[in-house]
Amino acid sequence: MTNVFGVGAFVLLWLGANSLGLGQESADDQWMRGDYDAAMQLAQAEVDRGVWNEKWPKLLIQCQLARGKFPEALATYTDAVDRYSQSLSLRLLGREVLLLNNQSELAEKEADQIFNILQQSSSRFTSPDSLVAAGKYFVLRGEDPRQVLTLFYDRVRQADPKHMGAYLATAELAIEKGDFLVASQTLSLAEAVDDSDPRVGYLQALAWASSDSAKASIALKKSLSLNPRYSPSLLLAADNAIDGERFDDAASAIGQVLETNPHVWSAWSYLAVLAHLRGQYEIEQLMRAAALSGWTTNPGVDHLIGRKLSDNYRFEVGAAYQRRALEMDSSYLPAVYQLSQDLLRLGDDAIGWELASQVAKSDPYNVVVHNLMTLSDRLKGFTTIEREGVVARMDAREAELYGERVLTLLVDAKKVLCQKYEVTPHAPIVVEIYPEQKDFAIRTFGLPGGAGFLGVCFGRVITANSPASQGSTPSNWESVLWHEFCHAVTLEKTHNRMPRWLSEGISVFEESKRDPSWGQSMTPLFREMLLDEDLTPVSRLSSSFLNPASPTHLQFAYFEASLVVEFLVSEYGMNALNELLVQLGNGLSIHDALGRAMRPIEVIDEQFLQFAKQRAEDFGKAADWSRPAEMDMATKQDGSPPIVPADNVWNLLADADSSMKASQWSVARAPLERLLELGVAVSDRDGAMEQLARVYREIGETEKEKEILKSINQKSSDSLFALSRLIAMARNSEEWEAMLEYSNKWLAIQPLQPEGHETFVEAATKLGRPGEAIKSLLVLSKLGPVDPAGLDYRIAQVQFELGDYRLAKKHLLQCLELAPRYRDAHRLLLKLQDNTSETAGTPSIDAALNNEADKDQAGEAKPVENSDSSLPLKEQDP
């Protein structure tokens, strides 16, 4: 970036500038509504009349560009620029015209001409349009966006609060830099100025896309209602439809764009994306060629195609497209950034982070890149552990506490799932576990957010939240990692060519196969959703994950997807499911692959509908499921209220809930027990089963409470409520095997706190299994124990029993350093001396201690051995 003529060098000359000029309302209205031909006719007439107002040729050029009349737009510009040679906004528009006419070199010269005009006579450009155009020019040059906002766009808004161009330019700049909050705030002000401008809704949809999909959808619909032909909004609708695997809807929106303007390069780029996702690779290349036909060096074509393919998990192909974009323009930062993201998601960290660093240096004001580089610094403190083709990256402290358990689970997942799905990973699977949710979100999505996600798999790279990031009610991290690893396996098998619903459905299905308490279970609400319009046909199921109406609808999408997979396996077999994945990997669309491996999608839709309805009707078959509103409609003819069935699920739930809130335990018991008998009591947090367990505890029926808690444990993967009570009960009844099992399950939910480790050690010790106890004892030593000397003694005891005298000695010395007169430790030390003395070639403890003294003289660390009771060290006597 040169300093020949910076933003601040001439802007002070503009202070006190007056806004001027009024638009042609009728032509502008026609333009905004998408009646481009009428607006073009009016503008052409005014240009032909020779009206001295640059707004007419600019409007004519905009209409010509909107209708794909690029040569005509160039002719109009050539004539106009001779007349209005000092117009910054006209020359900025001319740069776009030249690019679309495949005259890149002349376009760059036009940009240079803007620079020369500003340098020679900046004080002349005082109109709002000129200020906004100058600001856009400096953005193209890569100048400080904060200065552009302050010295140009903000000044225009202060001078003319109704100038839409300044609001739109501000929002566009904020979106480009990833500052969506500033963008949305600015657009709210713009909407107050003019709520009939389709550009506002389009930009709002972009600004809210990552944080509020519902608002984004409403904004996009409003934009299209104002101008059904507005190509940016139509293409954004196509973009969203592609993500939802609604390819026909996407093609329809793209078709509307091309009907208005057959030369929109981004529309042809989206058609290339659609062709690839449908496995039509020759058509893909034809569409790419069409996109480049009017502007052969446009890096945006390959960038857009690659970005959308990466959005659909085709990271390797996406990365190849970004490289092609950079061959056209090595300085095209969007492609550099996207390539960095693709490589990071492919596990190519070295190059990925280097590219991200390049973007950060070139664009220091990009919020997304800044977040990513900040995360890069934090990742340097992570620990990497690996085994058998699995790599885990974790916070150093968390790696010490449960890293080995993570690796053990992942290696097991690799063996089980790779064998089942006949996959041999061609590279290590990398799992990154983040103790802070914001870091997980930045690594995964580029921005803070994503609070509903526990883990995400990109293929060979998995990101996950650790229990530390989930507050007081963490989810079962083992089930999360098993779920995500299953994604890695199926994505590997299909080369990332599988629809969202199938990927999620298989992962949830495999969770429940691993452990019946994992995965998704039927609930009264899910039953109701299966039997009404919430049930989405298999052919459109991926859309349920894109824009769910609520978090409940998203959970239902996971449940329905797993139910589809269960249906496919039960109806067609596991071999057919594997064949389906093979066909997807070969490039077939999901509908074609289903038809080849199983049955046509129309048949699958109908079969699954019957399967799902049957499953729903079998759940609580003896119960009455009428909603209160339905019962109200059944009022008797004499006007008397209807008789509410005794076994109405919703009334039973409501009665139990109100009684629980009033602490009327005996009253709550009857409806809760009836729900259990009907088979509709669920194990969710604060669900009917937990409520019934609470009732039994309060009224003193311990055995019944225990049975309910066992049932919860069998059905729920993350009920610390049930596990806490079951552990206490097992201890009281000296059921050590059960206590060990419950403690182990506790650690699968929360391994970062001492409770589960303490009870695990207690149970393992009672069972005489020191080998199982030692891992949790060592973890406890890292969790800030209240009695570190006592804990070292316990570790030494276990190591002694295991015959590891070296480690036993180490922990005894640490114990005696803290408590020199710890008598049990001394006794164990003597016992240890006897054992080591009897071992051939093993020096005595005294010799070992002398060795330590010799090492200390040589400058090495020496354990403290001092029995001076005057030292302020903790003592322990039995």
Summarize the structure in words.
The protein is mostly helical and 878 residues long. Helices cover 67% and strands 3% of the residues. A hairpin with a 3-residue loop joins strand 4 and strand 5. The N terminus and C terminus are likely disordered.
Short description:
The protein has about 900 residues and is mostly helical. The chain is about 65% helix and about 5% strand.
> Treating each run of at least 4 consecutive H or I residues as one helix, how many helices?
45
Oligomer: single chain
Low-confidence runs: 1-23, 840-878
Largest sheet: 5 strands, mixed
Strand order of the main beta sheet, please? 1-2-3-5-4
- Hey, roughly how much beta strand do the residues contain? under 5%
User: How far is the N terminus from the C terminus?
Assistant: 75 Å
Outline: globular
The average pLDDT score comes to 87
Task: Tell me the total number of β-strands.
Answer: 5
Q: Which structural class fits the helix and strand makeup?
A: mainly alpha
Q: State Rg.
A: 34 Å
Helical amount: 55-70%
